[in-house]
Structures are given as structure tokens and as C-alpha cells.
Design brief:
Mean pLDDT of chain A: 96
Largest sheet of chain C: 7 strands, mixed
Number of strands of chain A: 5
Order of helices and strands of chain A: EEHEEEHHHH
CATH topology of one domain in chain C: Aldehyde Oxidoreductase, domain 4
Chains: A alpha+beta (158), B alpha+beta (300), C alpha+beta (787)
Structural class of chain C: alpha+beta
Oligomer: heterotrimer
Strand content of chain C: 15-25%
CATH architecture of the largest domain in chain A: Roll
Low-confidence stretches of chain C: 1-16
Largest interface: A-C, 57 and 62 residues
Strand order of the largest sheet of chain C: 3-5-1-14-11-12-13
């Protein structure tokens, strides 16, 4: 199949890649660019493990083709921490034991960071609604909710 | 679950889009808008379009504005655009209420209203809204433009009046009079799941009685429908719980679920009555949980 | 619960140092997982790798007439296409033996041979340079299959599996006492017909395997292993005719286990065969649709159970006949789930006579095996339904009926004349009535009852229910670890156990750190690698903390002794006067005046050290722990539910899990295990189910159909009470496993609460609870009230 050369801007870095139009954004991030922090959980948009930020908004990277992401600012879990310092959301997940196997974690982090950046005054109930977008099979969500509420309460993401 | 190959076309204008579509229509060419249904369908290889005409970069299709008494929504307006009221009247509030029931936030940031209408899933919230409010749909092709009512457009279970070379470019939702009240009720198994049943009730209350009643039922039959018999029962009547219960019973009686399984069909008929009754209670602001006219802050 | 964040982690620092065991310290595992730097199976890639794609059966049962691979082979870029004929020498997938005999003929071939027996069964595999291309090619493989009727109900009479064998490989019979006499003497006999639906673990990470043959070293490697790396390695080595020492499995990060992940599946064998034959690395990543039809299912059973009780509701005897829906083949667990169901059904109660017949039957569905709390989730539902029915029959409440029948703490250890998993069932320790009391008090049972009554009076449909259970954990027979202090003072702990994300690295490091006297963060846990340690038993059956934890303590003490002895030389002191604190050997009460670090001790014992003499070099030790018996943690679940009168949907308002784990190494991790396990238990009680149509087509093949709970469906309030009332006498730390108690009684407690809400004892007879049935019951109740 014919490949197309595109430039993807991921965490502020430009990547020039050749992809088939059918290649999803998540496969391109993982396989072509080598950023494997974004995970593939269902490939039909339900589980949210592949959630990334596209121009600041959380999207399912399995439901977009990479060619559609050209010119957009893509943010992935690899871009959250600053050097050795974890992003407040990452630190809160650690402090509240909001991860076990860690497979869904990048998706939850990007979802929560994306929403809290745009809606710092989010209510507790809205947080539960927002987090119901993604699936976790280990934690039972209680600690994820706690972690996100703690970050929201401290206003640390804005 | 990797999509089959396709040729990706990127038109820069609506005219160019329909030209491209005309060229590839016979070769299973499709429009790609939000892709939140089409892409998973392709991942499952239940759809294998050879060509996708990607309309995401066409500025005129992001149009959302009030014109000639209607809200005009372009084919690339995302669900998320409706999180906050897009116009100050009841329609904006109605759309902001309904949109919260569409899947989950990351789907709403990509999926589009017109895409939902063109997909014609029986459980689509926007299909119910379009049917109930009498939306008009503007279809474009190289052959020209035609405008068609939502009811005539939706042919039931994933079928529409769209010709292979046609695309849904805009939908026009009539603005609602300022005194209009509405209630929306949806039953789904889990948060964000496809609806098992939903109802939209719209009316005005003048002098203690209901006027201009519109009552739509969705997710039960192959396509959403207005419940004329129930509307007739309600028109001119005082909004009271007993009446709403009777309207629900009418809805249950009329509903013809598509399910083959008798137990499921019985349950869905029952749910039809429940959602109708509850939607009416919300519209009349006698919902017990106080959620009838809550204006949602939503995600900006 | 208070969680100590990593930055303030408690470490031993001086003689009054807080202990590590029992502390909710932050996890060692977290940083790479949070930063997107984990290494899951899909993250492993090698240059020039091939991608394998499996062609799966689309019909539930049929004879394979032909499989046309020509169009696929003709496609450019296709390296190979195999059907059963191409792997004829590869034996079927084996199973771990129990006492149950005669299962071999029912094992699954790696590619279907002659017959397909479930939708999703591997028929062929293709190998191409790219995952997308491999899927294109797989579409071109066209099987021709003559369909046969599908057997979909394990309750139906068995049919022919193959000539001379029917679809009931075995009936598991256990029992003791005079059951007939018990029923003859009974004041009441209660009979129930109960069933549990088909659920599974469904980890968020699908399976994956990447195999590579390194001819230069003659080593075959497979990445993506989990749970049972050593057993899988040994069995695959046998199947492929290789010596185990030239074949290594590597467990990386594992995106959830829950019993199903890390078993030996056809795809694991196929990638290894392919890497050998094709001389290129071969990668296979399962997709979600495959996962829902190809990875083990679990749970599905139907029980016809009867209890004989006296006039006060004391059990005289229990008789159970159950039908276990195994699916199409026997897999690696053999008949273990049915065996455990039969052996562990009685839970915490004193039952003088018992007789069970478990019909282990094959159907044309995805093969089944263990899923978190296997055999217990099902039988706790059945047994606790039975107890509620007994209470109803004799007119006592749910608490009293249990109190009258619980095994008393004075009776511990309590030997049942039964076996499960090949070990005798000896309840090692427990204060069941004590925990029931604590749970009721913690939940405010009486207040809750009053609240529920009040709300019912105002028209709400609310109810309370409870379930009690006994779990099992710490399956033997043995576990070993090797502990090495390197010359920088860092400690490597190599274990044959595995991690499926439960936090075992942290728990083992805590045990090690406490026994050795070092900061747990200086300990690196290496697990799931067959090249690093000769033996291992992986991660399952809530065994890791118990077995590997005990072995870790033994190894750490041995290293400590060595370190003290060497330091005594270095400090010219008596070892008895020395202590190991925070990574340094110090004089007791002597401050830091003269001390040596573990790094110095390790260098002192280095082979190149001039002090080494003729003793074996290195500051290291192995620790082995053996156990013949399982131990038995126990617990109580209490649920409060609200039913939507219109839709029949069940909302869980409050939930309590009280669980006695003997000794909690890290309460934060245990709390996490319990709440996560509860989410799965609630899923099975209310949402999750693999259903099939009449032709055997699976109806739950996406996440839009297989409904796992989201944040929204969790109870409004979840409370966890972890107790340490009954340490296990079977290991030095008193540990019992914590992995499965959150799941175990969720079906039982929710069922009881729904009954209570409806005011219809015995209403729930099947899981998941059906909203449609609830609506029908409410309609009947209204009609009844009106007439």
C-alpha cells in the first residue's frame, strides 16, 4: 500500500514518518515513533488505554488515523513528567495506589490531565463521570477517583 | 483488528469533497468525519471502504450558527461542541442535556452530530432529537443540494436516504420558543453505553395545560419515532403524574422492539413506558431528582 | 487508611526503627508504569521480526473439509501459512495434573485437527512482515467446514466428543458422612437450582508473545510470559523436543492476570515453533475480539443443591450435583475449577455429612479455566443462597443462621475429610464468628437495617445482604528465592514467582528489608525469568506473598547471618554484638562509631578479596520454603443495594469487605486487591456475561457487549476491613493470601441484598442478576398488591 510521509508533533518534538493511511495514531506512536507508553487495549474505542491529548483534548488514539493528526499537538504519557519530577497527576496516582498492573494508567493519566487542564473547577461527581470513560480491571477505580480528586482539590493542574 | 487498506482523500472544500466522493462512490468510497463509529467498524473489518474522503479539514463544515430560525450544524461539528449551550434558548439547553448521554468524553471530542445522523443507529441520541424536533438535513452531491426531513432521511437500522455519492453536509434544528420545556430520559446498562430506551419530551405549558407537545421514543425500534397517540393524549391536558403514567402505557403499547428474544422485547416495551413517563416528568419539572432543567456546565 | 507516600517511606533507622511489614509503603513498581516506560508484551520488538496472525473458526462445531491457503501463500510478503498438517508433530496443550484421570484425549491441539469445537478456535496461522499485512493475509485463508449442531448447555445429556468418548470426561465425586441418614433425620430439606454465568478475567492487556531463536547461543526465548513461566517453559520444551536449559521465558510487565493470563495457550507454542523454523523473531499480539473468544472463560456452573437441617436451622447434611461448563477443550487447569468447587463448597460451616457430584462437561464454547476465586465465587453464591434459604425456612435471620453453623475458632485447625487441588482441606486457623461480629459492627448492620426499613416505607426498593466465605491461598509445594548483595550494597532478589501487577515486588522487598535490615527501596526484585532461577511456581492461587514471602524471609536471614559474620571479622567483634540496621552493620548500642556498610561487606566477600580465604565467595543466599497444605483466609461481604423501580437495575450503594489475612505485609496493597477484586465480583453479579446464540455464535465479542464495571458502577461507598485475627500457623510470618477475597462473595451478597430489596427470599437464582426479571417481579408484586 502507498505510504505517505507526514510530520507528527508529539510532546513538542516533530517526527517525520512514513505511514499507510490506514495506520492508526496509536500504532504509529508505538511502532513507528517508538513511544510505547500509550497502550492498545481494545482497538474499538471503549477501554481508553490509548487515550492521548490532541490539541489538549482527550481522544482515543485507536480511533484516528495517524494521517489525521498531522498539524496537531499530540501529548502522550511520556511527556507528563519533567525530568525526574513526576507530573502532579502521576505523583497522585502513586500516592493513592491508583495503579496496579499499570496497563490502563497512561490512558487514565492523559484523560484526567486533559480534562483538569480545561476544567480546573471540576466537581467530584463530574470526576466520576469523566473517569467512567476508561476501563481499569485491577483497581476498582476507588483509588483512581481519590487521586484525581486530590489533584483537583489542590488545583495542581491548570 | 487493523483496518483494511484504503485510499485517503483530503478535500479542501465542500465542493471538492463531493467531487471526490462522486469519483469513488461506486468503489465503496465513504465520508470520514469523526470516525468514532466508522473506524472501529473498520478495525473489526465489518466495513472495508476502499476510499475515505476525510472532511475533517474543511472549514465550512465546522459551522455552527443560528440562521433563519434554526441552528445550523456542519458535518464536522463535534459532539463536545454542545457541552455548553450553543444558543441561549431552550434548544441549546436541550442539546447540552442530551449530549452528556453520548458515549464518553473522549468519543465526544471527535464524534460529530452529522456523523451520528448519517450512521442512523437506532440508539443514537441525535437521531432521536432530529426526529422529535423535525430537523432538516442538507444533503450535497455533485448533482446538487437537497433538503430532507429527518424522518424521511432515517430509513431504520443503519439505513438512510443518502445516495452513495451524497453526503450530509448540514443539519438544521429548529429553534424552540423561549417558553419551551423539555425532558430527556435514557436507560443504558452502564454509564455511556448504548441506550436501551430513551425518550425526549418537548412542550410548552400555557395556562396550566400542555401545548405543542412533541414526544419521541428512541433505541427501542429500528429508528426513533414520534408517539402521535401519546402526544394527542397530552396536548391540552394538565401535566400530572397520572397522565404521564398513562402516556407511558400508550408508549409501551405502541412500541415494537426489534429484538427476537421475547423476554428482551417485553423488557424493552416496558422501558419504553418508563422513559416516556420520566421524560415527561422532567419536562414538567416534577422529576423527583431535580435534574429536569439543570443547565450543565459541561466540559469547555 | 493512611498511605505513606514514597517520599516519606518508612525505613528501619536505628533500634526503634518502624517495621516494614505491616506498613503501607509506596510501590517500587510504580515509577516506570506512570512514566510510560513499562515493558509489556506488545512493547517488545526485534529487528526483522515477523507478525503472526491466527485464522479462527467462525462456526461453533463442524468437520474441517479443507483449508485453502493458496491465495494467502501467493500474496507478496507472506512468509508462511500453516494449518494443523504443518504442525502435526506438536502435541496438544498439556494440563497440570490433579488426581482426576482420563483428561488427555480432550486437550486442545495448537491448530484444529479435523474438527472445530468453538468459535475462535485456531485453524491456521499466517506470518508476514507487518501486523496489518498479516491480518490482510489471514482474511484470504478460506476454511470449508461442514457444520454440526453445537452443544451449548452443560446440563444437557453428554454427546459424542469423538468415537468412544463423550463430552463428560469425568464426574468429580467427593463426600463424607452419612448423607442419607442426615436427610432422613432432617426437620427440613431445602432444595435450590442455582447457576452462575460465563465470565472471565479480561485483563486490559490482551495476550502477547514474542519468540526469538538465537542460533549463535542455541537458545530459544519467548517474551510475554506470565503467571507460570517455569511450568510453561518446561512443557513447551518437551513439546518442541528441546532441553529446558536452552529455552527461556521472560515475563515483563503484565497487564493484569486474574487467572487467565500466562497460561499456556496454542499461540505461545506457535510463535516458538515459528521462531525456530523461520529463523526470525516472531511476534503475536492478541486483539480484543480474539481475546474475548480465545482466552480462557470461567465460572459457568449450574448447581442443584439440597440441605438437610434440624428444626433450629443447623445443617445436618448437604448434597450437591453440579454441571460445570468447561467449553470445548480441557486446558492447562485440567478439572481444577470443578475440583475446587466440589472440595471448597462448604466454606466456613460445620457440615456433618456431604456428598457432591460435579459433572465436568464439554460444550462448543471457549474453553474455561480459572478466574480470580475460581470455584469459590460460584460455590459461595450457591452455599450462601442455601444459607439464606435455610434461614427463611426456619424463621431466623441471615446472621443467626450463620452463627449457628460456623466452625468455631476452638475447633481450629479443622480438618474436613475432603481434598482440593490435591491437598487435604484443613482449615488452618480462623475466628469466623468473630469476624462476622466485627463486620456487622463496622457496617452498622442494625442501623442499616433500620435505614432500609425506613426508606422502604417511603417507597424505595432497598435491601441488605451478606455473604460469608473461606478463601484458600498459599498453594505449595515450594518456592525458592536467591538473594545477592552486590558490591555497591544493592540487593537483588531473584524469585521464581511472577508478577501480574499485584505489587509482589514491593511486598517481597518489605519482607526482605525487614528481615535483613535495609531500606526496601534498595532491593530489586527479579521475577518471571527462567534464565535467572532454575525453579519457580509463578503467580497464582494467592500464593506469592505466602510462599515466596516466606522463602524471602529465610534467604534474608541467611544473608544477614553471613553479613554479620563477615562484619565481625572486619570490625573484630563478636557477631552477637552486631546488628544490621538501614544497610549497615553496627554494634548494638554502639552508635555509628564503628560500622560497615553492606557494600563493604559484599566487597569483603568478593572472590578477589584478600580476606576471602577458601570459603564460598559472595554475600548471597538461597531460601526455600515448603508447604504441604494451603491456608484459608476468610471474610464477610455486606452489600446495600437500591433497585430502580422502572428499569430493574441494581445500584450498589454501600459495600463492606471484611477479610482476615493472618498478617498484612502492606495494607495498602491488600486494600487495592480487595477493592479491585470486588469490582470484578460485582461485574459478575450484575453485568458481565458471555452469551451465545442458538448456533453457538458468541454474542459478547467487544467491550460494548462484555460489560465490565466503570467508575460509575462502583458502589457509592466501599469500605474494607482488614483483620489479622488468625495468623496462619503454616508459615513463619502467619501470612495468608489476599488476592481473591474481594471477589469471592460479591455474587452472594448482592443476590441476598436484591432478595431483601424485593422482599422475595430466594428470588435471585442466577448470576448476573437480570434487570428484566426484576421488572417482571416488581410487576407481579404490584398486581398482587392490587388484587
Amino acid at each position: 500500500m502507498s505510504e505517505r510521509e507526514i510530520v507528527l508533533t508529539v510532546n513538542g518534538v516533530e517526527h517525520r514518518v512514513r505511514v499507510e493511511p490506514r495506520r492508526t495514531l496509536v500504532d504509529t506512536l508505538r511502532e513507528t515513533i517508538g513511544l510505547t507508553g500509550t497502550h492498545v487495549g481494545c482497538e474499538h474505542g471503549v477501554c481508553g488505554a490509548c487515550t492521548v491529548l490532541l490539541d489538549g483534548e482527550p481522544v482515543r488514539a485507536c480511533l484516528m488515523f495517524a494521517v489525521q493528526a498531522e498539524g496537531k499537538a499530540i501529548r502522550t504519557v511520556e511527556g507528563l513528567a519533567t525530568g525526574d519530577t513526576l507530573h502532579p497527576m502521576q505523583q497522585a496516582f502513586m500516592d493513592h495506589h491508583a495503579l496496579q498492573c499499570g496497563f490502563c494508567t497512561p490512558g487514565f493519566l492523559m484523560l484526567a490531565v486533559g480534562v483538569l487542564e480545561r476544567q480546573p473547577d471540576i466537581t467530584d461527581d463530574e470526576i466520576v463521570d469523566m473517569l467512567s470513560s476508561n476501563l481499569c480491571r485491577c483497581t476498582g477505580y476507588v483509588n483512581i477517583i481519590k487521586a484525581v480528586r486530590a489533584v483537583a482539590a489542590q488545583g495542581r493542574v491548570a | 483488528m487493523k483496518p483494511a487498506p484504503f485510499v485517503h482523500h483530503v478535500p479542501r472544500s465542500l465542493d471538492e469533497a463531493v467531487e471526490m466522493l462522486a469519483r469513488v462512490a461506486e468503489d465503496d468510497g465513504r465520508i470520514l468525519a469523526g470516525g468514532q463509529t466508522l473506524v472501529p467498524t473498520m478495525a473489526l473489518r465489518l466495513a472495508r471502504p476502499s476510499h475515505l474522503v476525510d472532511i475533517n479539514t474543511i472549514p465550512e463544515l465546522t459551522r455552527i450558527e443560528v440562521a433563519d430560525g434554526a441552528l445550523v450544524v456542519g458535518a464536522c461539528v463535534r459532539h463536545a461542541a454542545f457541552h455548553r449551550p450553543v444558543e441561549p434558548g431552550p434548544l441549546g439547553a436541550l442539546l447540552a442535556t442530551v449530549v452528556r448521554h453520548i458515549a464518553h468524553l473522549p468519543i465526544r471530542t471527535r464524534g460529530t452530530m452529522c456523523g451520528s445522523l448519517a450512521n442512523a443507529d437506532p440508539a443514537s441520541e441525535w437521531c432521536l432529537v432530529a426526529e422529535t424536533l423535525g430537523a432538516m438535513l442538507e444533503l450535497r452531491s455533485v448533482r446538487g443540494t437537497r433538503t430532507i426531513a429527518a424522518d424521511a432521511f432515517n430509513l431504520g437500522y443503519l439505513e438512510t436516504a443518502l445516495a452513495p455519492d451524497e453526503m450530509l453536509a448540514f443539519v438544521r434544528l429548529p429553534l424552540l420558543p423561549a417558553t419551551t420545556r423539555f425532558g430527556f430520559e435514557e436507560v443504558s446498562r452502564r454509564a455511556g453505553d448504548y441506550a436501551q430506551a430513551m425518550a425526549l419530551a418537548v412542550c410548552e405549558i400555557e395556562g396550566g395545560v400542555m401545548r405543542a407537545v412533541r414526544l419521541g421514543l428512541g433505541a427501542v425500534e429500528g429508528k426513533p419515532r414520534r408517539l402521535a397517540e401519546a402526544e394527542a393524549l397530552l396536548e391540552g391536558a394538565r401535566p400530572e403524574p397520572d397522565l404521564f403514567r398513562r402516556a407511558g402505557a400508550v408508549a409501551s403499547g405502541l412500541a415494537e422492539p426489534v429484538e427476537a428474544d421475547e423476554e428482551v422485547a417485553v423488557y424493552k416495551r416496558h422501558l419504553a413506558g418508563v422513559v416516556v413517563e420520566r421524560a415527561l416528568l422532567r419536562a414538567a419539572s416534577i422529576a423527583t431528582d431535580g435534574s429536569s432543567h439543570e443547565i450543565i456546565r459541561g466540559v469547555p | 487508611m493512611t498511605v505513606v507516600p514514597a517520599r516519606a517511606a518508612m525505613v528501619p533507622a536505628g533500634t526503634n526503627a518502624p517495621r516494614l511489614i505491616g506498613q503501607p509503603v509506596a510501590r517500587l513498581e510504580d515509577p516506570p508504569l506512570l512514566r510510560g516506560e513499562g515493558c509489556f508484551a506488545g512493547d517488545v520488538s526485534f529487528p526483522h521480526q515477523l507478525h503472526m496472525r491466527v485464522v479462527r473458526a467462525q462456526v461453533a462445531h463442524g468437520r474441517i473439509l479443507s483449508i485453502d491457503t493458496q491465495p494467502a501463500r501467493a500474496r507478496p510478503g507472506v512468509v508462511a501459512v500453516w494449518t494443523a498438517a504443518d504442525v502435526a508433530e506438536v502435541p496438544p496443550i498439556p494440563f497440570r495434573a490433579t488426581k482426576v484421570q482420563g483428561l488427555e484425549a480432550y486437550c486442545q491441539p495448537v491448530l484444529a485437527r479435523g474438527v472445530v469445537r468453538y468459535v475462535g478456535e485456531p485453524l491456521a496461522v499466517v506470518f508476514a512482515n507487518d501486523a496489518y499485512a498479516a491480518e490482510d493475509v489471514a482474511d484470504l485463508v478460506v476454511p470449508e467446514i461442514e457444520e454440526r449442531p453445537a452443544l451449548l448447555d452443560a446440563g444437557e445429556p453428554p454427546r459424542e466428543f469423538e468415537p468412544g468418548r463423550d463430552t463428560e470426561p469425568t464426574v468429580i465425586r467427593k463426600g463424607y458422612g452419612d448423607v442419607a441418614a442426615a436427610f432422613a433425620a432432617a426437620a427440613h430439606v431445602i432444595e435450590l437450582d442455582l447457576s452462575v454465568g460465563r465470565h472471565s478475567g479480561v485483563p486490559l492487556e490482551c495476550r502477547g508473545a514474542v519468540a526469538r531463536y538465537d542460533a549463535s547461543r542455541d537458545v530459544l526465548e519467548m517474551y510475554g510470559a506470565a503467571k507460570k513461566s517455569h511450568w510453561n517453559r518446561d512443557e513447551m520444551a518437551r513439546m518442541l523436543g528441546r532441553s529446558p536449559s536452552t529455552f527461556h521465558l521472560y515475563e515483563g510487565h503484565v497487564g493484569g492476570g486474574f487467572g487467565v493470563r500466562g497460561e499456556l495457550y496454542p499461540e505461545d507454542v506457535l510463535v516458538c515453533v515459528a521462531a525456530l523454523r523461520l529463523r526470525r523473531p516472531v511476534k503475536w499480539i492478541e486483539d480484543r475480539r480474539e481475546n474475548l473468544v480465545a482466552t480462557n472463560h470461567s465460572r459457568q456452573q449450574r448447581h442443584r443443591i439440597a440441605a438437610a437441617v434440624d428444626a433450629e436451622g443447623r445443617i445436618l447434611g448437604i448434597r450437591d450435583q453440579f454441571f460445570h461448563d468447561q467449553g470445548a477443550y480441557v486446558r492447562t487447569h485440567g478439572a481444577r475449577v470443578a475440583d475446587m468447587a466440589a472440595g471448597l463448597l462448604l466454606g466456613p460451616y460445620r457440615v456433618p455429612a456431604y456428598e457432591v457430584a460435579g459433572h465436568f462437561r464439554l460444550t462448543n464454547k471457549t474453553p474455561a479455566a480459572t478466574y480470580r476465586s475460581p470455584g469459590r465465587y460460584e460455590t459461595t453464591f450457591v452455599r450462601e443462597r442455601l444459607m439464606d434459604a435455610v434461614a427463611q425456612k426456619v424463621g431466623i435471620d441471615a446472621v443467626e443462621v450463620r452463627r449457628r453453623n460456623l466452625v468455631a475458632s476452638a475447633e481450629m485447625p479443622y480438618a474436613r475429610p475432603l481434598d482440593a487441588l490435591g491437598t487435604d482441606v484443613v482449615l488452618d486457623s480462623g475466628d469466623y464468628a468473630g469476624l462476622l461480629g466485627k463486620a456487622l459492627s463496622r457496617a452498622g448492620w442494625d442501623d442499616r437495617k433500620a435505614e432500609v426499613a425506613r426508606r422502604r416505607a417511603s417507597g424505595e426498593i432497598v435491601g441488605l445482604g451478606l455473604g460469608m466465605f473461606v478463601e484458600k491461598s498459599g498453594l505449595g509445594p515450594s518456592d525458592g528465592v536467591r538473594l545477592t548483595v552486590d558490591p555497591s550494597g544493592c540487593i537483588e532478589l531473584v524469585t521464581g514467582a511472577g508478577s501480574v501487577g499485584q505489587g509482589m515486588e514491593t511486598a517481597l522487598a518489605q519482607i526482605c528489608g525487614e528481615a535483613l535490615g535495609v531500606d526496601y527501596r534498595r532491593i530489586r526484585v527479579v521475577r518471571g525469568r527462567t534464565d535467572q532461577i532454575e525453579f519457580g511456581n509463578g503467580a497464582h492461587a494467592s500464593r506469592v506473598t505466602v510462599m515466596s514471602g516466606s522463602a524471602t524471609q529465610i534467604a534474608a536471614r541467611a544473608v544477614r547471618e553471613k553479613a554479620l559474620a563477615a562484619a565481625a571479622e572486619m570490625l573484630q567483634a563478636d557477631p552477637a554484638d552486631l546488628d544490621l540496621v538501614d544497610g549497615r552493620v553496627v554494634r548494638r548500642g554502639g552508635g555509628a562509631r564503628a560500622s560497615v556498610g553492606l557494600d563493604e561487606v559484599a566487597r569483603h566477600l568478593h572472590p578477589s578479596s584478600r580476606y576471602i580465604g577458601r570459603r564460598p565467595p559472595g554475600l548471597s543466599a538461597e531460601g526455600w520454603f515448603y508447604s504441604d497444605h494451603m491456608n484459608y483466609p476468610y471474610g464477610v461481604h455486606i452489600a446495600q443495594v437500591r433497585l430502580d423501580p422502572g428499569t430493574g437495575m441494581v445500584h450498589v450503594e454501600r459495600y463492606l469487605v471484611a477479610y482476615d489475612v493472618g498478617r498484612a505485609v502492606n495494607p495498602m496493597l491488600i486494600d487495592g486487591q480487595i477493592v479491585g477484586g470486588l469490582a470484578q465480583g460485582l461485574g459478575g453479579a450484575l453485568y458481565e456475561q458471555f452469551t451465545y446464540d442458538a448456533q453457538g455464535q458468541p454474542l459478547a465479542t467487544t467491550f460494548a457487549d462484555y460489560l465490565m464495571v466503570t467508575a460509575r458502577e462502583m458502589p457509592d461507598t466501599v469500605d474494607v476491613l482488614i483483620t489479622e485475627d488468625a495468623p496462619s500457623p503454616l508459615n513463619p510470618l502467619g501470612l495468608k493470601g489476599a488476592g481473591e477475597g474481594g471477589t469471592n462473595a460479591a455474587g452472594a451478597a448482592v443476590a441476598a441484598a436484591v432478595d431483601d430489596a424485593l422482599g422475595r427470599p430466594g428470588f435471585v437464582t442466577a448470576l448476573p442478576v437480570s434487570p428484566a426479571r426484576i421488572v417482571a417481579a416488581l410487576a407481579t408484586a404490584r398486581t398482587g398488591a392490587a388484587s
